Structure to design on (129 residues):
């Protein structure tokens, strides 16, 4: 895993990461990322968010067979909520395997994460940091 250097315009950096996974018939839609005031969000939170989204997108690409992914951002008060949705095959959440990393990263920055998925129903995650 290469060291992550946070760029001044983190919103663009994150959007580029997400959109880099859009190929071979997979459409990646990113909502409201430019409306987040990234200056207000600490570096550890940005790092964790970047790595978590990277992991989710990698899992999507490897396992989900999704052709549509939506990642939406909403900032209110001092919280940032990120919603990830795809229309892939979903999974049995009891076997979170690679998702344990995601959960641990969010917990490490005192955030919360909700998984909502089941076989053939797509994959949804809501995280709040």
């Amino acid at each position: 895993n290469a060291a992550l250097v946070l760029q001044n315009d983190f919103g663009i950096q994150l959007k580029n990461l997400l959109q880099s996974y859009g190929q071979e018939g997979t459409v990646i839609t990113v909502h409201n990322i430019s409306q987040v005031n990234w200056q207000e969000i600490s570096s550890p939170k940005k790092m964790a968010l970047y790595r978590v989204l990277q992991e989710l997108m990698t899992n999507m690409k490897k396992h989900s067979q999704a052709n549509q992914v939506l990642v939406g951002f909403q900032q209110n008060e001092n919280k940032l909520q990120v919603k990830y949705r795809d229309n892939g095959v979903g999974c049995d959440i009891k076997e979170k395997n690679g998702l344990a990393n995601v959960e641990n990263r969010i917990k490490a920055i005192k955030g919360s994460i909700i998984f909502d998925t089941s076989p053939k129903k797509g994959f949804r995650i809501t995280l709040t940091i």
